[in-house]
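dude i think i finally got it to work??
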Amino acid sequence: DLHTAYRRQRQMCIRDRTMGENSKVSNMTVHLTSSATATMEGVVFPGTTSATSQISNLKITLDNRNTPFNTTGHLYGILSEGTGLPEEPYHTAENCSVDLYSNCGGLKRCVLVSTANTFRSFGCTYNAHGGIILGTTSSWYGVSTNTGTFDSISDTISATGPSDRTAFTGDILQNTGIIRLANTNLVPVSY
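look at this
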């Protein structure tokens, strides 16, 4: 029926690109918008793809500013959730930009390394832009690790907190795992 087809189409738009083994995606724009409460993922690296696949010159924008401010919507520009361990000097992401825009609660991460893998970034810009959050639990971070490793070389990482100052905000969040920074510009948090 039409309703089921519409729902399938909408779900496909929420996760734009899942990287396959030995893939390279370059010179592309990924722009996802939603006014519904949803988890949005720009590019996902499952399995060993953080060691075998690469993105370069990508512009990734996730925008759920039209979602009601008292709801929750998670945004992950790049989600690295596999087991890949790239060899030096391999970079999983090169010269990419990730921008997140939101007015609702939830987790906002330009890059989330969520499992025991290594994600290497070179020359990228990560910006998490906060909006208006009124009493809804939320957090904005440019880069976050949960058991994995994020290597940053010559990146710029920033986060802008919501105007009501109710959210946790920072350039980086190291729950567990490792974050290594080399020639990386961390922009002071602003509201």
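The longest helix spans residues 2-14.
im so relieved honestly
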